[in-house]
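Intended use. Records such as the Glycoside hydrolase family 13 protein entry shown here are meant for training and evaluating sequence-to-structure methods. They are not intended to support clinical decisions.
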Amino acid sequence: MKRVKKGKKRTLMQTIALSTLVLGTSLLYTPSVSSAYAATNDNNVEWNGLFHDQGPVYDSVPEPTSVQSVTLKFRTFKGDTTGVNIKYYDTADGLFHVIPMSWMSNDATGTFDYWQGTIPASSSQKYYRFQITDGSSSVWYNANGPSTSEPSSGDFYIVPNFKTPDWMKNGVMYQIFPDRFYNGDSSNDVQTNAYTYDGTPTEKKAWGSSVYADSGYTNNLVFFGGDLAGVDQKLGYIKQTLGANIIYLNPIFKSPSNHKYDTQDYMTVDPAFGTNANLQTLSSDVHSTANGPKGYLVLDGVFNHTGDSHVWFDKYNNFSSLGAYESQSSQWSNYYTFQSWPNTYASFLGFNSLPKLDYGASDSPVRNQMYNNSDSVAKTYLKAPYNIDGWRLDAAQYTDAGGGNGSDAVNHQIWTEFRSAVKSVNANAAIFGEYWGNANPWTGQGNQWDSATNFDGFTQPVSEWITGKDYSNNAASIPASQFDSWLRGTRANYPTNVQQAMSNHLSNHDITRFGERAGGDIWKTYLALIFQMTYVGTPTIYYGDEYGIMGGADPDNRRTFDWSQATTSNGAVSLTQKLISIRNQYPALRTGSFMTLQTDDTNKIYSYGRFDTTNRIAVVLNNDSASHTVTVPVWQLSMQNGSVVTDKLTGKTYTVQNGNVTFTVDGHYGAILAQ
């Protein structure tokens, strides 16, 4: 698999009196706030005072309707600039427009000026950047940060009438591979030699044993007995012990394999997982507040392809009706694309067991079956009695007409129609697509997905910084400065409400486990969890990652859950519980601004701020094995001298002195300093 594109590396920041050095070196010295900012109109814009994002402090309406104007704030050092302009591109007329900003106020410390301007309401999408001037000097600023020349990409978004689900922004997701989570009903277990698929029999193995098939069997037909009853019985662990409130299940519909990505029947829960009634019960219990916080249930939508045993295809003559593989006159013959009937047909990534669906024209029967009809797959499960809350879209980039590779105009048409269909049933339903790179083509217009799987902007950079491995367990190490640069560049790919709903996972069913990449060092899992729960996006825990479960590439990343670890006597589980509680306590950690405070490559320190109109929080991460005394420049968050911050992880308090907080942070650990 190709490495995903990283965010752009930042250039040298202009040297200023207080001075943070070049990105990639330590923050060696920060003088007193009271004497540091001798900002003047000297034809030199001081970059370290500039800030804007679309958090609640700087954007009046993060998700505007077409009749809401958007008032923006921009921050500079006090007295440093002679003017700030908003320059925005309006898709309605294809032109740039300039709005001069007016001085608004100073911050509480007297360090910064705030400027304000308003972009008028309309239904058209807009992109904006800022021009900051100090006499003859000009600096540009957009989501990629400051630059000397006017940028051509990376602007902030205004997408009227685009709403992503608040519960997704504010929740914590728990991903479950059902066969490996918990066996709640042994009566439905798939036994050894229960059936064969493509000539290979099933194999039942004992919980906790190797996931690899014994001789004569195959990995995809190894079963352990996990089921929906098991998920239901363990909701107390998920919702109370951990505090997660969104359950995302890998596919649960009838299929011959353990992974269920080769669907045989979309309208029937696989018998090994239970019944449709079990799904109804699980959904009701997830939504209930009797067993913890109100929850949400997301199912895996495998809409790009079916299995070759589906009645529409019926390669193995399982049904009395004629499938597309059996007869060219089949009622489902146009559901698939045959190059040479019957044995040469379009399939997902060349796997013949996964024939691709042909979505054809806009009135194609596949579109109707999958999402358009009132009894379509997508709508059926969103409605009573199932009432699920959203769909995760598997291999969504490949969905198309005619058996191609997707990612074309037809693909985007399909997902635009899918969004309309889903939102017509439940406007608050979530739609997030599987994509391993920049998912902007599906999220940047506000008409397809709400968000995506954040391999590019979370999984990969976190792995490389903390473990020195990419998500495929290959050597790949980056310093803190490059980590920060990567994060900034990938955030700039998306509207803010998409960023806040991106699925941020350390592992999932397709890549090696984070614990494996960390070499079993549980402290690296601690550090990753601290970042995961304080970064922008929806923290997504792949079952077992909360205790550092090990596992290599598929199928080893799908080991059975070790229930002896599922207690707060396990340090990582206890930390996960605490972190989710902290995240729930502070909206700033969910929908607040994100500001880089410090990158120290020598000592492997990374710190950043999360803040809104109520709270200011500095998060400090130490990626070294040794503890370090750090000085965090919290003046950037307008924390006043003499004010107190509390580390929510330890309960210790610290006083802001000379604009900084100084304390010691343990190796491969962190601090969450809140006020």
